Description:
The structure holds two protein chains of two kinds.
Chain A: H1 2-8, H2 10-13, E1 19-23, E2 35-41, E3 44-51, H3 59-63, H4 68-76, H5 83-98, H6 104-132, H7 137-157, E4 166-167, E5 170-171, H8 177-202, H9 205-211, H10 219-224, H11 230-234, H12 241-244, H13 265-288, E6 309-316, E7 321-328, E8 336-340, H14 342-347, H15 350-353, H16 359-369, H17 373-377
Antiparallel strand pairs in A: 1-2, 2-3, 4-5, 6-7, 7-8
Chain B: H1 2-18, H2 33-44, H3 70-73, H4 87-111, H5 113-130, H6 136-172, H7 189-199, H8 210-227, H9 245-266, H10 270-293, H11 295-301, H12 306-311, E1 316-317, E2 321-322, H13 331-346, H14 358-361, H15 371-396, H16 412-431, H17 439-467
Antiparallel strand pairs in B: 1-2
Amino acid sequence: MSDTQTAVEPEHKIRTDSMFVNLGPQHPSTHGVLRVGLTIEGELITKAVPDVGYLHRGTEKLAEARGYHHCVVLTDRWDYVSAMPNNLVFCLAAEKIMGVKVPPRANALRVIMCELNRIASHLLFFGTYGIDTGAFTPFLYAFREREMILDLFEMVCGARLTYNYIRLGGVMLDVNDAWLAKAKEFIEYFKPRLDEYDTLLSFNPIFMARTENVGLISKETAINWGLSGPNLRGSGVDYDARKADPYCGYEEYDFTVPLGKKGSCWDRYYCRVQEMRQSVKIVEQALAKLPAGETMATGVAKVPKPAPGEAYAHVEGARGDLGIYLVSDGQGSPYRMHVRAPSFINLAILQEMLVGNKVADVIAILGSIDIVLGEVDR
Amino acid sequence: MAEEKSTGNGSSPEIPKSQPAPVPAGVSAGAAPAPAAAKPAAAAAPKPAAPPKKSWPEPKFNEKDGRLLKTTRYWPTELWPHPWQSASYRNGAMMLFGIIAGLLASGAAIGELSTWGDKLYALIAGFVASHGQPAVVTDVIWVAIKVLIVLHVVLINGLWAIWWERKISAHIQSRVGPTYAGGFHGWAQTIMDGIKLLLKEDITPAAADKWVHALAPAIVVAPVVVAFAPVTFGKDLAAANLDIGVLYIFAMAGISVIGVVMAGWASGNKYSLLGGLRASAQLVSYELPRGFSIVPVLMFAGSLDLSVIANAQAGYKWGFLPKWFIFYPVVGQLAFLIFLIASIAETNRTPFDIPEAESELVSGFHTEYSGMKWSIFFLAEYGYVLLASFLLATFFLGGGASPFVFDHVIPSWLWMLGKAMAMMFVFLWVRWTFPRFRSDQLMDFCWKFLLPWSFANIAFAGLTLFLR
């Protein structure tokens, strides 16, 4: 009699336990010091709690004790994979407060550098996402190309990661003909590589199976969680700060905003790959019609003490809508600097997205959100 | 060594003397004259006054793409003596060369053993008889020789395969891979790594089940050595002529799963546990299509004996096409593909490397292993790759049979080795090209695709045999 009962209701007899797994802060796939507390049953996630703050350096507070020129250095350290937009967004906000007009050549150089940096950043994403899904080779292909971009940056400003190139009122140094020739050469070299990536990874059946119906974010969810950048566009929402609120003369360039369809990991991935194409297009145009003239505005003080006021500037960084809210009280340093860090905001959706997925999907989703912990923790 | 030193010390301070310009500017250009000027200087002033000034050479850029040239990225041999020039390296390299040459010679000896075998056996028998020992001693010695040879096939394969994998993966990924150790394309890298692994601390985690943790690598590696017993390394060249060779190999290879699960369980690490669980599911599943995929081969050959299977593929169709099983229309190719895919899954390699998925499970079941225990897992992995390569060559590529009608010179063991290495290259190639499956997709692929098709393939084979 008891035997039949066991057969009918086996779930009462088999005791299953959930397991708590710390994904990070030391883990090959968290791309930094992110910790995700996972509660798993077998391979299934039942609860996920992202834990951030391991890389907190308090740059927002540090800015309150530094001059405006010095703050640019701090911005390099947020999103160290694409530091040019960070430089740019701070300069835009500060220039708004100070009322500085940037010369057109400096604007074009800013656009070129930011787009090159976007390519470099997306290449890093492309490579590491390959590793996340188990393909190691794309990583080194991506780094081969990224190396060239970093060489270009090194030529122009001496740094490979933390550039401090975009300064208040313009850019640090003008580019020379050798640099322009090399940049054009890189663009020509890079264009066919993008097709190579598509054949190697983007349309690989295994890769698509891993990412195509995983980590779906609907349009509404994406907007509700405040996503931005390729994560938002992967869900099909047409929002790009370069189009919606052009800065640095982005309205002069002809480019499209690639959109995803379903909001899956693959959509977000492919948005970035296509964005690289668009960035190449923008750089090409900018190089072709690079205006002559000064690269630094006149009238930017050594120690700027802008009149009391506030300004918000935002740019389309590699990871999303990067914004800065800057308040001046007339002193030599900002009264308050607040950063709208896209990585941090994009990360929040993880706790909702991860639940119900497999452990292997956690890595695919985490990778597709493309966070940089320097920016998450600031 | 002393010569080297005096030249080295004499030459460096000489450079500022003869060239007033600072050293770094003229390094590459001044490399040739500097040693020439060094010799008389060394004779004239044996004791250098100042320590040699070391500086990196001027970076040279490629004209075309502006990238840093290879020569200035690597060891600045113009300034510092290359390690290859030091006596310790040279002696070590000669020693290693001796070892490798010995191994190669013994490899060649193994290859020709089929012709010498009987003579050698008679020699041993005569020696034993002359010492008044019973005849069983001859067999014991004979078996011991065979066991040693097979064991060394597995061990040396580990050295070779890891180096090869590193070189191939490097060139696939636009890198160069190991280049220093041993000089010639870094061939000694694996040997050096092996020495390093032997010297490393063997860590057993506090949470680990000590005995199971230590036993697991042995249980993983022992079956692969044993499984090599009936493998034919050429025409009629096997350590043991088992008439159930195929069955034996599959049975032995199945044992390793237990070791993997033990390693995952005993490490006391959650990632290892997940890896062990995944491994058990995967390996048990893929045994089935792997076994069923070769049933057509067995049907055509009519035997489970590996040498019979290989010999059944001798001869040529229409005078030029070898009668290998892979050339049998549809059935051969299907069986080959299923067996290849299932073998890749059995060896835990990308795209089926979910048990040790680095990005998810850190390293899966061998996360908590270090030193030699860790490397033993790799030895087993490469042993299985070699085993699968030899099996692929035996089942589908005609074993030691030559693909050319006119070829009567190249020995069969060389053909066998060549085919196995070609198959091994396929393994490496696949690994460095594809992403990884997810565990449930892996199961779907096995149960919903490979297994039905392997069944269908058996039916195809039956139809072919029926119509013949």
